[in-house]
């Protein structure tokens, strides 16, 4: 769902940057008040895991399309919506600047579409109410069922909202080649399927954490869940290994089919599927000086464009991208935590 700059007018792109900046400012203020030191390693390793997970496109059978996880629900369930949102911004910004994945002018919109809904809507309207409810009964197995249900419902709902936002933003940008109704009719069903698969992946990770260290999950009653089966270090180590394996190894087997947004725009006629909106991949959307300048900046900053060595088709480029990208994301996530801790300590000293 990474939007290209050509899909947005400068006015819409600026508006989405402002909306994302407002949510980020709110999140930074909330994270500064968080005194949980366990979140440092968890934030780093789960951010790296989401970065790696987004590299793997999984085929949506019978469509000629593919999808990848967004990760907002996963991060908000582990870190809270504010820290999760900031982590997603780090992931999407690094993908954009270093790997040319998603447009730089469109970064604000991509953060809103892929992070805001999963982190804030998914958490406050789905995850927390369900964790605090008594649906499915009480006890360990009921809690696990709630985690699975919240993951599935949350991923489906928030991806539907994100997909609809893409349609709305392109329509407001005045791209007449994309009729609102027809674009919706393509975007919503394909992202319903993508959301179902992401929900299963998210629930698998969260159930593992629940069975290992239930206190790491937001709003989960650890006392009701029984004793932790693994140490915090072992859980972080396992998630780190999974991130390395996914980013450095499994990413080599990602589907080559276009993702949901690309599929809706361009189809997949080369593989015998529909052309859908039938846009020309080389010439579509809005041309603007802002988009041109953003593209020039992106060309200079992206040292592994499209997760590959420049001018090379070597599989090693994908492996290096997955490992290096995951490490960069983890490092930046730690920096956010440490900066928040610094300001928190300064605030305490003034008091």
Describe this entry's structure for a reader.
Strands 1-2 form a two-stranded antiparallel ribbon. It is an all-alpha fold. The chain contains twelve helices and two strands; from the N terminus they run H-H-E-E-H-H-H-H-H-H-H-H-H-H. The termini are far apart. It has helices at residues 10-31, 39-54, 72-79, 81-99, 107-132, 140-172, 180-212, 222-225, 232-248, 260-266, 289-301, 315-350; strands spanning 58-60, 65-67. Helix 1 crosses helix 4 (81-99), helix 3 (72-79) packs across helix 4 and helix 3 (72-79) runs parallel beside helix 7.
- Content of β-strand: under 5%
Return residue spans where pLDDT drops below 50 for at least 5 consecutive residues.
346-351
How many beta-strand runs? 2
Instruction: State the secondary-structure class.
Output: mainly alpha
Order of helices and strands: HHEEHHHHHHHHHH
Strand order of the largest sheet: 1-2
The number of helical segments is 12
Mean pLDDT: 91
Largest β-sheet summary? 2 strands, antiparallel
Radius of gyration: 20 Å
Give the helix proportion (percent range): 55-70%
- Cα-to-Cα separation, first versus last residue: 45 Å
State the shape: globular
């Amino acid at each position: 769902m990474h939007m290209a700059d050509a899909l947005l007018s400068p006015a819409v792109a600026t508006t989405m940057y402002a909306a994302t900046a407002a949510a980020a400012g709110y999140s930074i203020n909330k994270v500064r008040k968080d005194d949980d030191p366990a979140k440092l390693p968890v934030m780093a390793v789960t951010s790296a895991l989401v970065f790696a997970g987004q590299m793997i496109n999984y085929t949506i059978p019978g469509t000629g399309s593919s999808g990848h996880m967004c990760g907002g629900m996963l991060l908000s369930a582990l870190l809270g919506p504010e820290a999760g949102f900031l982590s997603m911004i780090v992931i999407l910004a690094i993908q954009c600047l270093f790997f040319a994945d998603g447009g730089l002018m469109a970064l604000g919109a991509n953060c809103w579409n892929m992070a805001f809904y999963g982190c804030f809507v998914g958490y406050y309207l789905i995850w927390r109410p369900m964790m605090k409810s008594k649906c499915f009964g009480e006890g360990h197995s009921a809690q696990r069922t709630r985690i699975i249900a919240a993951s599935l419902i949350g991923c489906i709902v928030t991806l539907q909202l994100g997909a609809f936002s893409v349609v709305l933003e392109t329509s407001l940008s005045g791209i007449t080649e994309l009729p609102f109704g027809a674009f919706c009719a393509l975007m919503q069903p394909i992202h319903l399927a993508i959301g179902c698969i992401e929900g299963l992946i998210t629930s698998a990770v969260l159930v593992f954490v629940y069975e290992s260290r239930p206190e790491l999950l937001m709003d989960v009653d650890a006392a009701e869940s029984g004793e932790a089966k693994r140490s915090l270090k072992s859980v972080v180590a396992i998630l780190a290994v999974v991130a390395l394996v996914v980013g450095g190894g499994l990413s080599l087997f990602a589907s080559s089919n276009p993702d949901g947004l690309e599929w809706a725009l361009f189809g997949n006629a080369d593989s015998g599927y529909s052309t859908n909106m039938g846009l020309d991949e080389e010439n579509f959307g809005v041309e603007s000086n802002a988009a041109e300048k953003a593209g020039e900046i992106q060309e200079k900053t992206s040292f592994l464009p499209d997760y590959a060595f420049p001018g090379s088709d070597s599989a090693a480029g994908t492996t290096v991208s997955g490992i290096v990208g995951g490490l960069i994301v983890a490092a930046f996530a730690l920096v956010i935590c440490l900066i928040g801790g610094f300001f928190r300590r300064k605030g305490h000293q003034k008091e």
